[in-house]
Amino acid sequence: MTTSSWSFLTFILFSLSCFIISLSDAANNGFSVELIHRDSPKSPFYQPSQNKYQRIANAMNRSINHVNFFNKASLTNYPISTVVPDKGEYLMIYSLGTPPTKLYGILDTGSDIVWLQCHPCIQCYNQTTHIFDPSKSLSYKDLLCSSKECKSVEFSSCSKNNSCEYSIDYVDGTISQGNIGVETLTLNSTSGSSFSFPNFVIGCGHKNTMPFQGRNSGVVGIGGGPISLLTQLNSSTDGKFSYCLGPSMSNSTSKFSFGDAAVVSGPGVVSTTLVKKSPPIFYFVSLNAFSVGNKIIGFSKPPVEGNFIIDSGATLTTLPSDIYKNVESTIVALVKLNRVDDPNKILSLCYSDKSNNYVFPKITAHFKGGDVWLDSISTFIPVADGVVCLAFAPSQDDIGVFGNLVQQNLLVGYDLQRNTVSFKPTDCTKL
What we know:
- The protein is mainly beta and 431 residues long.
- The protein contains seven helices and 30 strands.
- The protein has helices at 9-16, 52-64, 148-152, 229-232, 234-237, 321-334, 376-379, and strands spanning 19-20, 30-37, 83-86, 89-96, 101-108, 114-117, 141-142, 156-158, 164-169, 175-188, 194-209, 216-221, 240-244, 254-259, 270-273, 284-285, 287-292, 295-298, 308-310, 317-320, 339-340, 350-352, 363-367, 370-374, 380-384, 387-390, 392-395, 400-402, 410-415, 420-425.
- It has a six-stranded mixed beta barrel with strand order 4-5-12-6-11-10. The chain has a four-stranded antiparallel sheet with strand order 18-17-23-24.
- The longest helix is centred in the last third of the chain and has 14 residues, at 321-334.
- The model is unreliable at 1-17, 22-28 and 65-76 (pLDDT under 50).
């Protein structure tokens, strides 16, 4: 997630709407968090009155609105958090303060700050869980403008009393303004103990608006910026994290792992290089082509390095318009079903599949370094009874987004020291 002063506003929204992490369990050699889809009955945002197609439509809308903007056997004690599926995204729990307060934050790979609603609330959105009160924590402290932490925050400013303030806004209308402070972050351990990370930099928001309300207390940014969750825990994680996203409509939870627990290895692993580009909060990779069935579909001109962003917060995969057009036309030539309109008016290529068992063509992403086969449950999705749509969308940007739908049933691991991201086909419901 980025601020409005940056040029890649498009990807912020994808991430903002997608994840809440449950941070529990931490250790010196790594830790894991469990991922729960927003639409899972285990999710705090679960709405039993909605059917599965309404939940998919909500997720598509959150994503498409921004499309054109731009394992070690020796591990015995490591952190675990639960990530819950919810409305096409994924949700996380963490604890903050002394004594610890349990909070929910939207997991955002495109953001570099952990911010939350704080008392006193000058303007707060409706949060059904406890709003954090820094005055009741023994470990909270506002930062001064002269602090190096304050100077590292791009969207910071200085108040009249010399305290560090921040103001961040996103293209979906989300806004947070408040103080930059330090607090103790607490994660539980698989052994039953807990680990504390003192002097963790947070944004304590006193004026906030957010379209995704409920238990959500704010945003947990795990991008590449200087004060993201990942960067601040780097000494404990060595720049490694991984996740495995189960099907969005399943009741299963998924893992979000850090450090040695996040290493992706074994048969079937495909790795590609992370490309360093600006802004550094995004995870850029080079994608050479797609395949539909046996037909390889390349770009109309040689792709530049870092032409795609791996975004676990984005719902849809968005393609530059030239390659999207060719992917769509190739699918149309292969699929022998009647085309229909998307009843939600979001996706452009939809079919009538009353039997729900049609075998759609296999789609493969050809990254620089290897090929990743995309599970059909994530490329062709049901949006209504008997209606299935391609979960890709065109973009006017040259940068594409590899969203979380196509990452379902892939174990995805990042190693920021080696500058790689790895993919391994995995049944995420069985991890």
